[in-house]
Amino acid sequence: MWQKIRDGVNIRTGLSELIDNKLKGYRVPSDTNIFYTIGIVTMAAYIVLAITGYFLLMYYVPHSEHAFGSVQKIMTVIPFGWFVRMIHIVVANLMVALVFIHLVSIFFMGNYKKPRELTWLIGGLVLLTTLAFCLSGYLLPWNQRSYWATTIVTNIPTAFPVLGDFIANTLRGGETISEITLTRFFSLHVGFLPPVFLILVGLHMFLVWRIGLSVPPLSSSAKEEKPWTGYRPVSYSKSYPFYPNFLLKEVSMVMIFFVVTFFLITFMPMLFLPEAANMPADPLKTPPHIKPEWYFLAPYQMLKMIPNKFFGISIQLIAIVIFLFWPFIDSGEERNILKRPLILGVSLILLAAWFVLTVMGRYS
Amino acid sequence: MKKIFFFLFIIIFAVSSFVAAGYRELFEKEFLSKPWGSEIKIESACLECHTSDAMNIELQQIPQDWKASWHYQNDVSCHDCHGGDSEDATMAMSHKRSFTGKPDHKDVPEFCGKCHIGILKTYVESGHGKSHIVTGEGPTCVTCHGSHNIQKVNIDIINSQRCSQCHSYERAKIIKQALFLTDKKIVAIENDIKVLKTKGVYPEQEEKSLFDTQAKFRTLFHTIDVSVIRDKTDFFTKKLNVIQDNLKATFGELSFRKKYSTLVMLLFACSWIIIFLITRSRKD
Fold first, then answer.
1. How far apart (Å, rounded) are the C-alpha atoms in residues B70 and A151?
2. A23, A55 Cβ separation under 8 angstroms
3. Using CA atoms, how far apart are residues A15 and B237, in angstroms rounded to an integer?
4. Counting C-beta atoms within 10 Å of the first and last residue's C-beta, which end of chain A has fewer, N or C?
5. Which class for B105: exposed (0-12), middle (13-18), buried (19 or more C-beta within 10 A)?
6. A28 — phi, psi (to 5°)?
């Protein structure tokens, strides 16, 4: 029976040939490490967010008078609504962490070097889109924390002269967070960002598939000695097929990701939902110790510490531009970061600074 | 060449940043740390005068007392009780803006009763109220609750120290005993609601129902009639039991959620083990 179905599908689609050529024929360097699977885990996280987001959309009401109530209804009345929302919240936060880890690992392995500059650039844009997703989605429950955290974050652009107020007011649709802001963020979250994200991820994956996975810098299977004067797929001295070997590794990591997700939902359900997140938004009452989400804590703390806010914003904008175009700036051949002590030292200091600023932002 | 452009870009950015130093002072000082909402309270004309050194010490103490009060926590401000215009210093104490100022002792029940309508009615019918109406000097709201540093009421407000100021504690003690179990239940429900809020549930219905029951129960305090209190306590206990049952069901739901997500987590853990074994067997 199973064989008959398989044959039937095969005759009509040529699936076996497709698997043989495109999946089994697609080679992966033999000594890939765990970090090579983070990209696909991120993709899995996005799919989970899209599915859970779709179900949340069935009951969520994007109106300031009903948003909080509708979210509470999802949490308490709709069967398994809590489950869908908790997955959405936890996976969204984990996704930010995954994109960070993915980029940091790519950086330290030097995998952004020629011919993968565009892959890095698009990856960076994926991170920015993910943060835009988080910022826009964060306001939607219309609770005290989301209202005031969004107030802080949308105030940040006002440090920028001339255009600052315009940017902030365009984001908010006025001087303060209001019904208009909610509608804008909602349409951004469910209408604009998903197709942008899909296009970026599609381009990113196309480039990964087209160029081939990079070889770890210390790997014995590295055979990319020829200069990149024209397009060619990467070849490896030692490799194995993508399907099923590497795919199994990736699925295995996806399973671990889900275990972590459900561990957090079970044992630390309030990790991303403090008490103020369970109170309806009140524009007249600022809750004490309001902070942005953890991924915005470092830039927030940095702005607090730098006396000239415009300078603080400028540094951050420069950092984003450098980060996006780093492969074009660091265009040397050497990929092994251990042989580049200056880059290694500076990047470790920056990572440590990020961590320290995040902790300071949390507890200051 | 591109490195020169890159560094030029950074220099231009940095220089323009320094040039713009001091830009938007207000923003620099306040935007990240100011409490936007409570700013409204700080701007109150009443507080501005009452915190200034021009005011005598006794009147300067009022804002501090009020800020420590239950009224403050619930956004009940000066003008809500005393009238006047808190946004306009020139009209803050104008009778055209319904400013009433400090009420005479005999008018205190009416003054507080503008909001606490149910309690006023009960108080007027009680021994306390009747004696006040007759003499104009009987116990009023401020005798037990104070005036500005008004705290959230609990059963401990009935104590020998306070009641003995005017009469013996015996009767008050019996009233306290009659109220004790119901009050304990209210405190337990309040705690349950607090716990639920930290667990991601906002029990709005139960909170409203508790508020309503509690307000009516507090009214009962003011009858100072033991037999009435004993008769009506059962009614409140039943209402509180319904709230408590609902909350218990919510806790049960939370326990189910934990078990359910644990099960899903274990399913994924098993899937991972199976895939891991398949991967290993393929390598072998």
1. 27
2. no
3. 70
4. N
5. middle
6. -125, 135
Q: How many domains does chain A have?
A: 1
Determine if the peptide bond prior to A280 is cis (ω within 30°). no
- B-proximal residues of A, 281-310, CB under 8 Å: 282-286, 288, 300, 303-304, 307-310
Cβ contact (<8 Å) for A252 and B269?
A: no
Identify whether A17 is part of a domain: no
| Number of neighbouring beta carbons within 10 Å of residue B56 | 8
CATH number at residue A207: 1.20.810.10
With beta carbons less than 8 A apart as the criterion, state whether A92 and A134 touch: yes
Tokens of B165: 């100021």
A315: chain B residues, CB-CB within 8 Å: 17
Tokens at A351, concatenated: 């990572």
Question: Cα angle vertex A73, ends A69, A79, to 5°?
Answer: 170
Tell me if A229 is assigned to some domain: yes
In this prediction the ipTM stands at 0.85
pLDDT tens, residue by residue, B191-227: 999 999 888 888 888 999 999 998 888 888 788 788 8
Cα angle B79, B87, A144 (rounded to 5 degrees) comes to: 80
Report chain B residues whose CB lies below 8 A from the CB of A83: 257, 260-261
Distance from C-alpha of A258 to C-alpha of A261, rounded to nearest angstrom: 5
Q: Which domain covers residue A215, as residue numbers?
A: 34-285
pLDDT tens by residue, B149-162: 888 877 888 888 88
Lowest-confidence pick of A20-34, A110-124, A184-198, B198-212: A20-34
Judge whether A82 lies within some domain: yes
User: A350 lies in a domain?
Assistant: no
Burial of A286-308, coded b for 16+ CB within 10 Å and e otherwise, reads: bbeebbbbebbbbbbbbbbebeb
